Amino acid sequence: xxxxxxxxxxxxxxxxxxxxxxxxxxxxxxxxxxxxxxxxxxxxxxxxxxxxxxxxxxxxxxxxxxxxxxxxxxxxxxxxxxxxxxxxxxxxxxxxxxxxxxxxxxxxxxxxxxxxxxxxxxxxxxxxxxxxxxxxxxxxxxxxxxxxxxxxxxxxxxxxxxxxxxxxxxxxxxxxxxxxxxxxxxxxxxxxxxxxxxxxxxxxxxxxxxxxxxxxxxxxxxxxxxxxxxxxxxxxxxxxxxxxxxxxxxxxxxxxxxxxxxxxxxxxxxx
Length: 271
Known about the structure:
Blueprint: E1 2-8, E2 18-24, E3 51-53, E4 56-58, E5 64-69, E6 75-79, E7 85-87, H1 99-108, H2 113-120, H3 124-137, E8 148-157, E9 164-172, E10 178-184, H4 188-200, E11 205-207, H5 213-217, E12 223-224, H6 231-243, H7 258-270
Parallel strand pairs: 8-11, 11-12
Antiparallel strand pairs: 1-2, 3-4, 5-6, 6-7, 8-9, 9-10
Helix pairs in contact: 3-7
């Protein structure tokens, strides 16, 4: 589009007081406005930049319109800028701040899965997946060289009592801290994972019971099987069985998955 504009301007030294200027205006209209790229971009006024309340995003009032209701009965809103939809508040407790710390605390106190789910008001399935996620973020503590360790196993089962599983772990005698653990059958492969950590730390002494597997896995000069050499770890076994309901001897609680059992042990030992 071309537009002609006339201005009254005083030009010194020329005597002219009028000038005509021709200006061309170009306006581009998209063929399909509903599919333009700028609508896909997040606008500063959409829900991504909304006001925050209790960690939940809320659409700003002047940029939202009602758009029916969710399946849970809550009001649904649509952003006028980006046309995305969401409800005003998300009250699911699994996404509340501090829920992971509460899960760690309840796990260490021996609360069962369903009991913890009722306390936290979340589903047991969500709790199980969150426990595995938390376990993945926990790293093994550093191991100090030239320490004395005690190694022992705890017997448990997965799904049924006939499916035995063993929890082998090593305890630092001085700090009373678990430095390594592994779950599986009572074989050299399961025990060797725990003992490999002790070899890398150049252990000073390793006390075990008289299980034959240890004779071929631990060097003779540092291996000891004295009568009271495993008193600390045996007492620690009792503490574990007292704190974790799934490991208690007379209980209706049990593990349905070795992955969940390993995650709970990792949280209990190092969480």
